[in-house]
Structures are given as structure tokens and as C-alpha cells.
Specification:
- The protein is an alpha/beta fold.
- The chain contains nine helices and eight strands.
- The strands form two sheets. It has a five-stranded mixed β-sheet with strand order 4-5-6-7-8, with helices on one face.
- α1 crosses α2.
Length: 257
């Protein structure tokens, strides 16, 4: 068995798919796995895959041409999943899809297909929640900044939404879990950028108007609350705890610059 160890990124996983397929060792004789935290096995040969944007683009181009669009979207979303076992299931589904004209939903009895669809659903659901819960703050230079901490890599799925909403704004959405940022320059397309792991959003300087508006918004949020009708369980259904630390109405006043 030859195990191809790839980086946990879009380019990394699709480069792994390219190399595993091109090895011609036989699909049953290869496995694709994430290099991070992988436990080495006896009697296996390991190949380290370097992320190659050109290889990744070739794979993506082939999948767009030969897979049903809904199946391609499911694979793409699965690539963004936090599931550590995702790589090999993605590879198996791609192999199956390129050898059949049927849609993958017709093969849900296969564990790898079910796994990919399950991951895609979770990633899609989380991305949809962030369309509601992203909060922007104005920096001193008038650019907009937001910090999120998603379980999955949702930035590629929410970029178009916010670019359409704010086409004339400079904004940056920082994913502090995966150290990625979605940057949008006014009147341009958005791009993804790797960010240093020691980046500290608390060091950013927000505009005076932003600080004042944040205080007003927090005061409003506190004033409209009716203590007798407080229902924490219901609140968590509509506003899960994991989103609250990054929402303006929940910022502690001491966090203001």
C-alpha cells in the first residue's frame, strides 16, 4: 500500500488526488491521507505530496467537466471539512464519479460517498450560519474587519456573498482557527491569504466612530432585554455560544481600544 500524505488545504488535497491517480499503482493499492498527525503504519510506502496549484487546477477542471455539478460542490465542500479522515474518502468518490455517469446520490450505500455527503452538509450548514453572524468593525483606515473561528474552512463559501453585499468596501474576514483571511479590495474580486499564527486582532486600531457605535449597540442590546423572559436554552438555539465572542453586541466593554 502506498500512502500519499498531503497538506490540509484545497491545493494540497487536489494535488494529492493528482499524484495518487498519476502513480498508476492501482486505486486499491493507494491511499490519500492528511500529513498532519498521521500515524505511520508498518509495511506501507509513504509519498509526501507538495501542494501544487497547477495540479490542483487540472483536477478541479476535470471534475467540473466530468462530474455532475452537485457532486462537484459536495466534493469541494468536503475538502473544506475539519474531518481528519476526509482525504481518502474524497479520493474514492472522485474515482467512482469519473468511472460512472450516475450521480453520487445514487451511491449513498457506499461508505465513502455517504461520508463525503455528510461532510459537505456540515460545511454548508456552518457556512450558512456565518452569513448571518459575521460582524464587521471599522478600522482607523476605514477598512472593515471581522474575526470568525469556524470549525471548518468556510471562507471560500462566503466570499461571494459579502463581495456582492459590499462591492465598494475594503474588508477582511479573518479565520483565527485556520489562520486564513478573505480579503476584498473595493471593485475587485476577493482572495484568500495565509496569515501568521501569531496575528492578534486585539492589536488592531478601530476608528473612534466604531468604538462609539459599539458601545451604543451594546447598551441597546442590554436595554431591550427583559429579565423575566430570559430563556438561555432558546437563545442558544438561535445564537450558539461559539459565535458570541465575535459579535459586536456581545463584546465586553473592556475589549474596546
Amino acid at each position: 500500500m502506498t500512502v500519499f500524505l498531503c497538506e490540509n488545504s484545497i491545493a494540497g488535497i487536489f494535488s494529492g488526488v493528482y499524484d495518487a491517480w498519476a502513480s498508476r499503482a492501482g486505486h486499491d493499492n493507494v491511499r490519500l491521507a492528511l500529513a498532519e498527525n498521521y500515524n505511520l503504519e508498518l509495511f506501507a510506502e509513504y509519498v509526501t505530496v507538495m501542494p501544487d496549484p497547477e495540479k490542483a487546477e487540472k483536477v478541479i477542471g476535470t471534475l467540473k467537466k466530468r462530474m455532475h455539478w452537485e457532486d462537484f460542490l459536495s466534493v469541494y465542500r468536503a475538502v473544506l471539512s475539519a474531518d481528519p479522515e476526509k482525504a481518502d474518502s474524497i479520493y474514492r468518490v472522485i474515482v467512482l464519479a469519473l468511472h460512472t455517469s450516475r450521480r453520487m446520490i445514487d451511491h449513498l450505500e457506499q461508505p465513502d460517498v455517504y461520508h463525503v455527503f455528510s461532510m459537505a452538509r456540515k460545511v454548508g450548514n456552518e457556512a450558512a450560519r456565518y452569513l448571518e453572524f459575521v460582524r464587521f468593525r471599522e478600522l482607523e483606515n476605514k477598512a472593515l474587519f471581522s474575526e470568525i473561528h469556524p470549525e471548518n474552512q468556510v471562507l471560500p463559501l462566503i466570499g461571494d456573498h459579502f463581495a456582492d453585499r459590499f462591492p465598494l468596501e475594503h474588508f477582511l474576514i479573518y479565520d483565527s482557527r485556520h489562520h486564513l483571511a478573505l480579503f476584498h479590495a473595493a471593485k475587485h474580486a476577493w482572495v484568500l491569504m495565509d496569515m501568521p499564527e501569531d496575528m492578534d486582532p486585539q492589536r488592531l486600531r478601530f476608528s473612534r466612530e466604531e468604538q462609539e457605535m459599539s458601545r451604543y449597540w451594546q447598551a441597546f442590546f442590554d436595554q431591550i432585554a427583559i429579565e423575566e423572559r430570559t430563556n438561555p436554552r432558546l437563545q442558544q438555539q438561535f445564537l450558539p455560544l461559539k459565535f458570541r465572542a465575535y459579535m459586536t453586541e456581545k463584546f465586553h466593554k473592556n475589549n474596546e481600544n
